[in-house]
Design goal:
The chain is an alpha/beta fold. Helix content is 38%, strand content 15%. Strands 1, 2, 3, 4, 5, 6 and 7 form a 7-stranded mixed sheet that branches. α2 crosses α3. The longest helix is centred in the last third of the chain and has 17 residues. The chain is globular.
Length: 280
Amino acid sequence: MVRHRLTDQQWELVQDLFPPPARTGRPRRDRREILDGIFWILRTGAPWRDLPEELGPWATTWDLFDTWNGDGTLEAILCRLRAAGIDAGLVDRELWCVDGTVVRAARCAGGGGKADDPEEPVDHALGRSRGGFSTKIHLLCDGQGHPLDFHLTPGQAHEATGLVPLLEGAEERVVDGDGEAIAWPVALAGDKGFRADWIDEYLLAMGMTPVIPSKEDEDRAARAVDFDREAYRRRSIVECLIGWLKECRRIFSRFEKTAKNFGGMIKMAFIQRYLRLCPD
């Protein structure tokens, strides 16, 4: 039996979000089967051509993943599940956490060509860091480890450079069931990579208290905010989330040529994370 299949309850949560079938042409493949196939690729990291036959034709599964990622279907699924978690009170409103992690890119991830899609970065979020050819995932989660949003940059980018686009994206996409943006949390925790006066000022202007430790060579008393050591201990939850995220082998290593499709795999991981919150 193939693992990573949706349960009946999980499928009922999202089945109405898929585009309706065309009125003409061949009968379409079962959408639940296709989604199971994408989850299998996500978790195993296998090439698309190695998809088990019982999960449908690999070319159809790849084509629909690319289509659903491009037309907003995956974003709609994630938005619904995340909003359901917000409405159910699962998302922590006191503390959110940010962090960045580098993902090694395989040789086949290169050669994406020119970015004709306005949503696709010119560099495809690929660069060279100490870890080699890589992409950096900038991640935002709540104090319970629920993934909220992400932003991609080349691997050599500093974590602080991704903070503003990460929070701007969250302000647009992290909404409740009525489509209303939720209030910022009381505090935002990050490691020393986010320590800068402009970040303190930026977060305070948004109504969030920075929970970021001072660097060894600076005057801690000169900072505008006091360091909350107890709150900072909870920041480890974002590192736990990164660890879980990289258990998805398609994210542990990047194989997608475009940042958009690599982001689609991250969305699929977020979707799976939220689906697991629903009862069996």
